[in-house]
Amino acid sequence: MDSIDLSAPSAVTEARQLVSQINEERGFLSEEDLNEIGISTLDGSLAKNLYSSSARFVFELLQNADDSNFSRAIADGEEPYVSFRISPDKVVLECNEDGLTPENLRAICAIGKSSKIGAQGYIGEKGIAFKSVFKVAWQVHIQSNAFSFTFTHREGDSGMGMISPVWCEPEGTLDASLTRITLFLHQHNNPAEQERRYSNIVDQFNKLQGKSLLFLRKLRRVRLSIYDRTDLLISRIEHSLRGTDYVTIRKASLLGGSQETLEERLYYLTKHIANNVPVSENRSYAAEESNTDANTEIVLAFPLTEDLVPIDDENQDIYAFSSVRKMGFKFLIHADFETEASRQDIVVTSYRNQHLRCCIAECFIKAVRQFCQHPTLQFQWIRWLPRRDSYPWGEFWGVLLDEIDSLIQTSSIFRCQTDNRLENISSLRVLDYGHLDKAGNPLFGDLPSAIYLSQKYASVDLNILKPFGLKSLSINELLDIVSHDLQLEEDLSRIRSRNTDNDWHSRTTRLLLSCLKEGTKEQQQRVLSMKIIPLDTGKWASITTAPIYYCHCEGGIEIPQGLDLGLVSSAAAADSERRALFDELGVSTAPIRLVQDKIFSLSQKVLKDDSASLQLAVSHLRYLYLSHYHEEGEIAPEHLIEYPIYSATMQVRSAERGVFYLPTSDYYGPLRLLRGSEYQNWFIHNAYLKDPPLAPSGTSLSWVDWLCQSLDIRRHLRLTFWDKDKRKMKLSPELLDVSARRPGSVVGALHTSWTSQKGVFAKYPALIDKMRRVMVLDKHGGRVELGETYLPLPELVESYSLYDEGEEFPFLKLTEPVASRTYQEKWGFLVDVFGIGCVKDVQFYLRVLKAISQFCDPDVPVQRPKRFLNLYQTILGSCQAFDDQHDLVFIPAHGTNQDQWVSPQVCVWVGHGNLQTAYPLEHIYRTKFDLAEADLQSLKRYFKFFIGVSDCTWEDCAKELRELKKSDEIHFDWINEIYHYINQDREDILDGEQDELKQAFDNGRLIYADTSGSSCWHTASDCVWSSGIQIQGRVLLNEFYPDLEEFFVDLLGVTTLTLEMTYNELESKGSSNPAPPIQDVKAVIFEFNSLLQVCSSSGASGLKPLVGSKILPVQYPNTDKHNKVRLVDVSTEFAIVDRRELWQAFGSEVKLLDFTLNETRILGPFINWLGLGDRYLSIAVKEIPFVKYNNPSTRLVQNPERQIRKRAHGLLRIAMQIDSPRAGSGPKRMQLYRTLRQAKVYETYRITSELHLLQDNHNFKYIKHPGELHIREDGNGTLELYVSRVPICRDICYFETLPRRLLDWLMTDPVTNVKTSDSYEQMLDVIISILNAPLKSLPYILDAKGIVNTDDPKEDPDSDQDGD
């Protein structure tokens, strides 16, 4: 009975009959019957396979449901689903499939057989399939359509119950599209074991992932409901799937009574049929099913965000219908793999799996091609690529990566930038950051072959592609692109376009520079041959065709145009990056000489008389000016003087061939003077003067000054010239022309030109006489020779007016009034050189007489004849000599003095106003008459040079001092000013008159000092210059004249304070009775100490220490304040403070030298000179430490590096360096080393020190707590050191106390216990370094300090063999 009408009323009866028929065909016997007759129909093989199989029953139930048909549910608008209700005693499965058919029933009862369409590969392992439920259930009840039957099988049964259905009356009627399978779970008598089994079952259901729906063909929803023994819901999870290609897995979870939570994940699915797949070696097939899974489906699921962005931050699972294991892939892989028995991995040796592996790579490329049709995923799918360095793939999966690599490299799956077509990766090039402009676009257009990879790929994705063969542009490809750009029309070429900005050029420059620096010689030559250098002409050039230079030559001077030189565009060269490229290409800075030679060469050609030629000529000349003062650009004068110049009328000639003038607007300039003459065109063109350049470095000469100096362009009228044979110097024709046409302008022109041309007249005196004969105008407008004129000074005009009756005197016509005091500056040369009259002397009166006589008309009566007599008398008086013996110097009333006339002998010109022995004329006249400076200068010339009055000298000052000595009233301020006055001329006196000055001061005792309230005058030998103390018998001048040390010491020879003088003063104070003040003695001590420091040892060696002198201020304890400090000699016992803590301990009990700690430091040389070094508290105080050895706080130091045994070798080297009595040779040295190597350092809170100071046979004691250090050494050579655990004390110990005590210990003879020397203080710093530096640095520190090395001991000196 293979067909039942399940809708007919008889369907149940027919179904029951089919169940009985199947049992009869199988010869069904119950397990009791089988056991009774001893027959096993299946030979136990099915049961054996069941319990050896790894088949998971949940998966098998899920696959069985997915194999079903769901036509009814789909027709009713329902999604195919399956639900599981899990409780401790049973699991109930419900599925809305079409229902069980007779074929289905026979398949279930068969071994390894399925009747369902498309179920290939789902048969199950070793034919188990659906039977795997008996691993957890002893009975299965299936109710579907008209069927209701059970299978029963317990552990130990033969297995017949798994394939022999037993009819069971249905408990109710199910919907037509519902199948229910109930699994009755095995029960165990032990509750704990039963609970464990149920937990395992629940765990298998909980492991069911929603992602499994991705790989099922029909099911769209799976629900799991888990209950406890009280039938209370523990949790409910529902997995559902939406979509086809882009599918969403949704998980709704409910735990107990909590709120439902939702999770969703989006995937893209790609499916691929793998054909001719080898059969599985672990599966059983019926004869008709031997090739059912030869063609199987592969599914790849790619996780996505809601925005369709790839998710690549987690590794995904490998599925064989259920999850097998996680791998390093960023996408899910499902295939009908042959798995291991544990289903924890696939069988990597399986031929089937190896074939599927190849098909997975094909499926991946299929997916990529699908992605390439998506607007965004076509550029992002790369993130799903498996990466070799991201996971330990193993050999099997590594082959898959190789196959994917191969397909990626050979498939056209990458977008081009230009035409959007797909190409393989080897044909495309990624554009690096350096290939893009500031907007992120390619610097250059693509080649016609289109090799640019699309820029829509993210940079992070491009990095992933590099191992797959993605490459950047090579140098050759880049050069091909540049060459292609250069071949385009100018408006299409990016390089040559006028619209290309500087940023683009900078980026391109960096690319080309990299080609030059990193390319081969051939590639470098390609760059050099490219026309990529912009010229100032607008053209583009290559360095290989002709030399190219920057637009500025050496010194930064701009090169003018028109020189046939290839010059880089100045705008391009201003960009530092482009300039670097030009440097690499061979563009150079043109030598100044090259440009100059080009200019001079061009100047030899015929110059056109057009504007352009003029502007070029001006720019060339400006270059010569700017380069002339460069160290490489000096131009020979003969070249410049021959350089052609454009005149105002565009004529071209050099200054050597004719005079050129500057067209200045000066009133007496050539432009006005020569206007209308034949010389009016002798001017350079105005273009030379427009926008003049600034003066270059190396000269202050302006452009115009340079033209005048170097090209002999004249600013002022030329006064002289050489004749054409250059044998005679003459007055210039231009000057003579001015004299003829504009005689009133001759004097002004002469003044304007004089400064620059006066040297010619000095060199050729004959010209002076010629100039004197040049015609000028007098003030009356008459023509007169220059040499016959007088300056119209007011006093001359006034004197002449006394005799004038209308006659004309030749006063020179000037455009401005002149005066005696001011004429010299402007018109002095007319008087000094050309003899123009300016003095009211005999010659003037004679010239007046001559002018009158020349003007008189014989036919006209003479007016006022008596005036001639007055004139004669005036001329006669002017001829008398000056008599300096008469009192002809007028002294106006000043002070208590009346007006008086005195002799020049008692006058000085410059002198102090307080002078009593001479009259200071300048001071008197300045203060009494309020004269102007010019008037004083005139009087100065009169008195000093005509009468012979001199300035005040040191002799006058000495005379003044001698007069002051005679006075009963002393004016100290006036004396001080006299000394300062003499000191002003110190340098001159030192050169020749010092001995006379010293003799005058010594003979006259002219040094004043008010000592002890009495005014005294002294010699230099009576005085001393000292900044500190008073010396008996000497006058201390610095107290009176603190700012005149140079005057008294350098000029007068006053001695400064010496060591011997201070010694004598100190000795005197030590023997004084009564004792001098303490502060006075201290002052002498400090002065003596200062001189000791600057004097050589030989200078102080002759002075015996003042052992018996009471010069030491000592503070006594327990005395009244008036007698607390006393002066004593060195025989008195006292201590010297050099440590603050020791002063605090003993300061109130013992006698101390009365100086502060800082003063004691300063007085070190004095203390050592007296031999008192052993009285320092740090030396005089003896410290005796005590320690409680067994105190609980005592322990070995916690820092191993603080153990000195690790530093034993370094300490041994120091001991040898200082000749320690403990470090002899041989055994003695080894004994010291062993002692140091075995030494132990402890730290404790229980160190106490007694400080002892012996003074006047009395022992003063002070208890110090906490102490810092105790060193213990027994007779066996064991050395123990105890340091304080108090951090501050411990630090003081390691940096101060321990180094000193260790040095003392090294220098103490272990036999006699006597310290052999105290002269090794310089080693203290070395020991401090050795005790505190890192161990690895010790050998280097010792070598750097010059400490002797030793080969003993032979073993590694700092190895730690003894342990801690």
Task: Kindly describe this structure.
The chain contains 47 helices and 49 strands. It is α+β, with helices and mostly antiparallel strands and 1364 residues long. Helix 31 runs parallel beside helix 34 and helix 36 (1059-1070) packs antiparallel against helix 37. The chain is flat and about 190 Å long. The two termini are 95 Å apart. Residues 51-55, 114-127, 879-885 and 1354-1358 have low confidence and may be disordered.
Q: Counting H and I runs of at least 4 residues, what is the number of helices? A: 47
Low-confidence stretches: 51-55, 114-127, 879-885, 1354-1358
Mean pLDDT across all residues, rounded?
Answer: 85
Radius of gyration using CA atoms only: 62 Å
Physical arrangement of strands within the biggest beta sheet? 5-4-3-6-2-1-7-8-9-10-11-14-12-13
**How many individual β-strands?**
49
